[in-house]
Automatic annotation (TrEMBL), chains A, B:
Cofactor requirement: pyridoxal 5'-phosphate
Its EC number(s): 1.4.4.2
Stretches that traverse the bilayer: none
Gene Ontology cellular component annotations, sorted alphabetically: cytosol; glycine cleavage complex
Positions bearing N6-(pyridoxal phosphate)lysine: 264
Family assignment from sequence similarity: Belongs to the GcvP family. C-terminal subunit subfamily.
Protein name, per record: Probable glycine dehydrogenase (decarboxylating) subunit 2
Native source organism of the sequence: Caproicibacter fermentans
Gene Ontology MF terms: glycine binding; glycine dehydrogenase (decarboxylating) activity; pyridoxal phosphate binding
Residues in Glycine dehydrogenase C-terminal domain copies: 345-442
Domain Glycine cleavage system P-protein N-terminal, residue spans: 24-287
Biological role stated in the UniProt entry: The glycine cleavage system catalyzes the degradation of glycine. The P protein binds the alpha-amino group of glycine through its pyridoxal phosphate cofactor; CO(2) is released and the remaining methylamine moiety is then transferred to the lipoamide cofactor of the H protein.
Keywords: Oxidoreductase, Pyridoxal phosphate
Automatic annotation (TrEMBL), chains C, D:
GO biological process, any: nucleoside metabolic process
Gene Ontology MF terms: glycine dehydrogenase (decarboxylating) activity
The protein, known as: Probable glycine dehydrogenase (decarboxylating) subunit 1
Family label: Belongs to the GcvP family. N-terminal subunit subfamily.
Protein's UniProt keywords contain Oxidoreductase: yes
Taxonomic classification: Bacteria, Bacillati, Bacillota, Clostridia, Eubacteriales
UniProt xrefs under CDD domains: GDC-P
Stretches assigned to coiled coil: none
Amino acid sequence: MNLIFEESRAGRGCTILPACDVPETALPQQFARKAPLRLPQLSENDLSRHYSALAKRSFGVNDGFYPLGSCTMKYNPKINEEMAALPGFTEIHPLQPAHTAQGCLKVLHLAEKFLCEITGMDEMVFQPAAGAHGEYTGLLLIKAWHHSRGDQKRTKIIVPDSAHGTNPASAAMAGYTIVNIPSGPDGCVDLEALKKAVGDDTAGLMLTNPNTLGLFDKNILQITQIVHEAGGLCFYDGANLNAVVGVARPGDMGFDVIHLNLHKTFSTPHGGGGPGGAAVGCKSSLAPFLPVPRVAEHDGKFYLDDNRPQSIGSVKSFYGNFLVIVRALTYLLTLGKEGVPQVAENAVLNANYLMALLKKRYQVAYDVPCMHEFVLSLQDLKDSCGVTAMDVAKSMQDLEMHPPTMYFPLIVHEALMIEPTETESKETLDRAAEALLELYEKALANPEAMHRAPERRVIGRPDEVEAARHPVVKYEYDS
Amino acid sequence: MNLIFEESRAGRGCTILPACDVPETALPQQFARKAPLRLPQLSENDLSRHYSALAKRSFGVNDGFYPLGSCTMKYNPKINEEMAALPGFTEIHPLQPAHTAQGCLKVLHLAEKFLCEITGMDEMVFQPAAGAHGEYTGLLLIKAWHHSRGDQKRTKIIVPDSAHGTNPASAAMAGYTIVNIPSGPDGCVDLEALKKAVGDDTAGLMLTNPNTLGLFDKNILQITQIVHEAGGLCFYDGANLNAVVGVARPGDMGFDVIHLNLHKTFSTPHGGGGPGGAAVGCKSSLAPFLPVPRVAEHDGKFYLDDNRPQSIGSVKSFYGNFLVIVRALTYLLTLGKEGVPQVAENAVLNANYLMALLKKRYQVAYDVPCMHEFVLSLQDLKDSCGVTAMDVAKSMQDLEMHPPTMYFPLIVHEALMIEPTETESKETLDRAAEALLELYEKALANPEAMHRAPERRVIGRPDEVEAARHPVVKYEYDS
Amino acid sequence: MGSYIPSTPEEQKEMLSAAGFDSFNGLFSQIPESVRLSRLLDLPQGLSELEVRRKMTAIASENKVFPTVFRGAGAYRHYIPAAVTRITANETFLTAYTPYQAEISQGILQSIFEYQTMICELTGMEVSNASVYDGANAAAEAAAMCRDRGRTTVYVSAASHPDTIRTIRTYAFGADTQVCLVPEKDGATDASALKDLLEQDKTAACFFLQQPNYFGTIEDAAALGEIAHAAGAKFIMGCNPISLAVLKTPAECGADVAVGEGQPFGMPLGFGGPYLGFMACKKAMMRRLPGRIVGQTSDDAGNRAFVLTLQAREQHIRREKALSNICSNEALCALTASVYLSTMGPDGLRAAAEQCYSKAHYAAKKIGAVKGFELKNQTEFFHEFVTACPNVQKTLELLERHGILGGLPLPDGGLLWCVTECNFKEEIDRLAELLEEAEQE
Amino acid sequence: MGSYIPSTPEEQKEMLSAAGFDSFNGLFSQIPESVRLSRLLDLPQGLSELEVRRKMTAIASENKVFPTVFRGAGAYRHYIPAAVTRITANETFLTAYTPYQAEISQGILQSIFEYQTMICELTGMEVSNASVYDGANAAAEAAAMCRDRGRTTVYVSAASHPDTIRTIRTYAFGADTQVCLVPEKDGATDASALKDLLEQDKTAACFFLQQPNYFGTIEDAAALGEIAHAAGAKFIMGCNPISLAVLKTPAECGADVAVGEGQPFGMPLGFGGPYLGFMACKKAMMRRLPGRIVGQTSDDAGNRAFVLTLQAREQHIRREKALSNICSNEALCALTASVYLSTMGPDGLRAAAEQCYSKAHYAAKKIGAVKGFELKNQTEFFHEFVTACPNVQKTLELLERHGILGGLPLPDGGLLWCVTECNFKEEIDRLAELLEEAEQE
């Protein structure tokens, strides 16, 4: 299809603004833009059709099963969207006086209260805009805490080799050196390796639990203890909280700081890559360092407290992706105390059920009960017929399913990482298993066909090498 | 795909209502339903996906060119939808006291005022819900008018053979006998035939102008005069008003009663078949007969007037498809005095432009300049290679266009009736013409392929005979 | 001035020329000068979107949105799930036309087939159409279905909604037939009057009964239907759709045709429309049912396929011989009803009906206990009921000041109250307190 | 209690058994008992949708929506066309993930490519990323891009938004680098101070300038940029996006990186988010740009195709060696900006900018004429300006009573006003009248 620029015709457009109703003032020439202002010019009909066509060339949770491991592509409830669209939320200026924004402040207050209870943390903020942003914020809390104690020599953050790439990247941005520790044969933290890694230069440990293999680390209390005894702090990456929400709390596992992805566990939509929403929580010892402003309460009235001298400052403007938090709060109010643990229960059940079905043919990377996701290794298949994890993933696209996460975690060869989430029905899982098992047979019978997949999408496999070698990153106007 | 009943599983569902907060009262057994209440039981995720899938198996104006003749499939502006969704309109009870519904009454008042000016009528109501409903209402006005003059013998309504089926059907429902008059060789009303048809049993004439061939009847003043002189009244079918809006007015052509389709000329969406919205307007002599209640004004306040002793009564509850009228009013406020005639100008231009392109190959039923639509006859093509209007229409489906109206009007053989509307761009028309001209060549070269069309839709041509012979009109539960 | 025309003046010129014209004027040469408008319309100047939004929003704000509604009488405030609003806002559903072209419209056709099934399930009937304009129109169309040779007179319970009665009368004026009202007595249709009337009339085509009736009463529909059938007349029931979840189905009451106003199934009050007329009947009357009907069939390859069927009934085929002139219906409202019913499910719909029932009875007890607001009828009722009212205007004004839309004033001085699942107990209690206050003033 | 879990208890039992478990407890056997929660969470009871709507609506109504807003300071009320809201509500856009799987995500990839193009056109830059979190974050990320060996210190104009300065400082704390504020003088960045500071510092990595600055002033960006470049520092401009339609582009001012807060492009105020951080740079710095970048390529059959490209920069490939940790961005907000820009078109965007300018100047004249509300600076400004105010609290309270959100109180006692295309003349005139009133009281 055409780019919107290719659909543009000079002189077309929509009539959005009235004529100016005050005397016009001309901008002095020396400040004025010289370059032509080239933007699309389309009638509203053509505009609308363009974006309809783009949507049809994409795939969302509403379009079908979306078992993208580690991304928790659960259903995004429609009531959440309606509440986030209330003018009483959308029309509020972030710098309105607090007495005119009590509703917004109450949203932040309630979300903090509920999520602290869910995670076992003492305080929580919502300023970070996404998971990685939350990791970074959490690491700065750790850094500020050490510095406040005059301890500047702790320069290392320990990260397991199964971690998301954001973990080491966030730690590096926070000025830390990364110590990668290999996973044990069971896919979990190797306690001996950890013991060797810690020391008086250890600022902390970042851990996702359950980890990216979908395994809950049974030694979690020893792990956090080892770090604490070495003088470090423990950061919980909440990417996989969906597996344990209402069942186990990071705060009870010994973690000092956590981040949550509201767009994973708390059902806010992913928006094609964002906006997400993050919460960063911590134990009270770290609370003085949290970003400002903080929501505070006095005489039953909420206000924003900027007077936190030990705060790390701000990681973005204002108070976070507020309308995302409205969605998460709506979700929490809907689920309540009984509903929250059911999320974890059914997420873990769905993963184990699907894994059991697939194990008939596929090799599971770690053949033990999983949590909310599991990892297949297609190394055997590749060895026997040359069909790769990539081939299987691309073939799934032709079956109206989104592929799983491919080639991650890095420690599993030919990995496919599958996370069904709790909002999928048994029939959807049965159909997916059937399709994947058929693909397995097809791979053995006709590997060539698998290399050609997808065949029913608007493009075949794109040339990514060419894209990176000769980057074309914008439309080039003729003139 | 599955029916929603086939996706249903006992015990699933959404949690919409709270528990009852008053003491429960049980319905006495003798009033109680015995049959099981079988309705779909789905999670919200599956529900949402089901309807996403249904939408993807359909085609709307947002999906592409929709030149469905006589249906005026123009763009449906998004601001109209937003205004119709304002709680200040959606939450108003139709039986609220008038002083609490002044805004709604003002909408009806303004829409009446503007549309009277556009049509040259004196009064207008919005109670009818759709075009045919408006025709029927208009005919009842005619009937009531004759009766009020003690003239009960006028039992016939004259309808040209090019008319929509609703015209004779509406007249029959209003108790009239239909006199069909054949069109002249120019596609317009045959004046001599009309003169022969009128008499003292003539209640009136129903006319669409421009007619369904896309031709404006140049003798329109003589036509209405002939009818008037015979003592009849003239009804204007507004189906094709889009061609002349702001350029010529039915009231100035001699019409006494009209109906308008808000969902054609005034841009309100068709909704997959409805709701439409109709307006029925008339000259003041007929106004006493209009349906009640009427919007009236006193001391700058609006109220509903039920005290119209000569009224024909009501044709439905309340005041019409109010939220549709909100959309139409929004559209009229947007266009204004200059915008309205531009609609007609560009609608007629687009039709003539597309006709000129297609004439290179296709035979136009009446080879004269058209108004907002034109009719092709594919008789020649059929004779030469066996490819029918149906085949061409079905082939268009494979090209991401909605087919034109087929086999109408009845007086043209192998008719395709094409109405591009004013909201299509030149490129869209160029692309459509190119596609249609290619289909013509394909028909000659490979007629078999055309009989098989469509090949890229979710089904091929369905067996309509079987459907009518053995009607299956609902899902049959197993039990 | 807003415009939705893509073409620029330059493009228009080019297109005019390609089509063989030198001006817009030439385009309209078919139109005689004498009927050409030689001036601009007397309309306001067109507005930009920003101004239109401002103006329409200002108009909307001239209405009062009542936070609490105790008024029904044909238009009901029920809870509309978010899924209903969001799913039906899909642009393809919104902007498609009637699905004449089956292959490209399977989604809309299937949605209608599903709607038809749900209406049949609710009513116990065998065939449903794809919708008509509203409940009153459905009643009038149902009456027309039942006309047969000498049997042309329509009997209508006087306890029906006034708009329904009025609409049936208007359609009878069109058809040159008679309407006869069957009197109401103490809030219910007078069965013995019905019997007497029908016994004397061999032209009776049908009897229309509203269930629950206008005053909220649950009628003894089966008994009334038997009287109609005994006289050779068809029996039409006009049903409140929410009540169908718990009340005897029209089929169980012996109805030949079941119709009703579908607005409670997910449509907002919207000052009266668009609403939804549903219609269903026994198979024997299938070919007299007006409007679109979707049927299941298959394509060449054996795929299940849906089509508009039984079109031989319809105006575009049968023209003046068609039984109805209906063309556009309320398809998007029918879709809304389907999505509503699928979201509520059987348990949710039953809960809505039971809560209407329980809350209305709770409210009736509370209101009826206020001096001067005694219940007018002793009949069984669903979610509406009539009370006396010592001073209608004063009472309603007091309630309005507290954001409450009170019961509808009836000609006899009573108030017709409605209570739904949306009315919380605290609202009902508050209402009763305010009525006490009104009474004491 | 609401739930989005499809499975019934019976199905769960069946699935547990198929997976080899006899209870949910067994499922969690990996979790040591000692960290298992042995109680229900201390959360409220779950609510039905009706109750949730009621509760959230009640919370929203505790906020005051000001009909008239004269406050900006980083969050601006501009007109949002209906097309923007409706198009971006498409469920597929809403619920898709980052387009890692190119073949099934061409629509979203193309929309990002189009967004990148528009940002490049507006800024005059050669490469744009797919968005970062917001304007302040974009500034901090841009500063990080410019760090190079010994050059690590970030110079920031003191006339930047306080949140931007604070965010840059926080990121510098992370990176163990220094931030140096360049003083502001009479509403503009002090060029000679900048020169002095930079001349003494060989560690200067970059200079960040906000345009128009926090006080509304249009800075002499080209001159300031030259000073930075002369000292071997990179030049980053943080631009108000609406102003880009009429002001010299960052490219024309010599900037190396252009960033800004994209909220004015169709995003509601929303109490501060989600907003949109846009970032663009010269080609030379392309491989230092953080975040997603979409590139054009082709598939085997030669079809144009879009992919996430230059991924070697990113965390999921490069891990601790990545220049940024960003993963989720603000994709839907970037789409919103694209739809906004396409709906406004060049003429519409220019009109918005010109009206902001004209109306702000009209308002400045009106307000500045009120005794006590004199303009603080004599600089050229875009759509924000600072005035004195005799009694801030009294003034703002008076305005609030009339539905007006007045200018933002500054630490020095002035008010920072903002006027956009949404402010009608009558509102501005009324504001001036009210200020007169406030002054006279």
